[in-house]
Specification:
With 245 residues, this protein is α/β, with parallel strands linked by helices. It is built from 10 helices and 9 strands. Bound molecules: 2'-O-acetyl adenosine-5-diphosphoribose.
Length: 245
């Protein structure tokens, strides 16, 4: 493993542009449950049962209950060694470094990363399902579904749900980054939710060296050039230590 970590660091050192894609796995060590695998269910619901426009239409109260539960966990959580290592990587590599996260927990920004795209949005944003007005919202408990101040419509979490498109600006910027990098790291994601998962294939087709950090194999594993099996909070600090040499 030491040799593989060294190889990864060396690739990063000589790269012109590195893009990192993170998923729920990087926040697992902060105590935030992932969506799939152990503890992935909330009251027996899967993310696919709750994070959809039809689930919200059917039962907005239940969907808000789930998001408020997640907000409370996230509020208590802080960046872990993996987040901090990525912040250091950005400090070292500056504009050569770019981060795309599927996570809505905001922990990368909290760690201090600035070059970040929040691909699926941010859990602390609330948006009117009728007029689209957004607001920053730190409420951790709603006894009733909140209503828009402007138009009275039902408000919903301002994140991207299954079946909804990624905002065009976010999608184009992410594709562009993936096409133009020479190292692409995919960290703590099951690699099954599209279009985020396709970013790795786009980078691969464009000739980038692909690195995966995950505690298990994923559908993306066969296409990667280097598999680093283990926890992001242990492997990333080791990679960054080498960059400092
Ligand atoms: P998943 O829950 O699908 O996958 C988490 C991944 O992290 C798994 O592959 C784990 O093996 C891995 N993992 C867990 N702990 C780890 C650790 N300490 N170090 C490294 N890897 C670890 O989460 P995502 O792939 O992020 O979307 O899920 C993608 C999207 O599905 C989410 O953004 C969310 C969800 O529904 C929406 O809400 C639209």
């Amino acid at each position: 493993m030491v040799e593989e970590i060294k190889l990864c660091s060396n690739k990063i050192k000589i790269s012109q542009n590195i893009v990192v894609l993170t998923g729920a796995g990087i926040s697992a060590e902060s105590g935030i449950p992932t969506f799939r695998g152990e503890n992935g269910l909330w009251k027996n619901y899967r993310a696919e049962d709750l994070a959809t426009p039809s689930a919200f239409m059917r039962n907005p109260q239940l969907v808000w209950e789930w998001y408020c539960w997640r907000r409370r966990i996230i509020k208590k959580a802080g960046p872990n060694a993996g987040h901090i290592a990525l912040k250091e990587m950005e400090e070292i590599l500056r504009e050569r470094f770019f981060l795309i996260t599927q996570n809505v927990d905001g922990l990368h920004r909290k760690a201090g990363n600035e070059n970040v795209i929040e691909f699926h949005g941010n859990i602390w944003v609330t948006v009117c399902s009728q007029c689209g007005k957004t607001r920053w919202d730190e409420t951790e408990n709603y006894s009733e579904v909140p209503r828009c101040e402007a138009c009275g419509g039902f408000e919903r979490p301002g994140v991207v749900w299954f079946g909804e498109p990624i905002p065009e600006r976010v999608l184009q910027a992410s594709f562009e980054k993936a096409r133009n990098c020479d190292v692409f790291m995919v960290i703590g994601t099951s690699g099954i939710v599209q279009p985020a998962a396709s970013l790795a294939s786009i980078a691969k087709s464009a000739g980038a060296f692909i690195v995966e950090i995950n505690i298990e194999r994923t559908p993306l594993s066969p296409l990667v050039d280097l598999n680093l099996k283990g926890r992001a909070g242990e492997i990333l600090p080791a990679i960054v230590e080498n960059l400092k040499e």
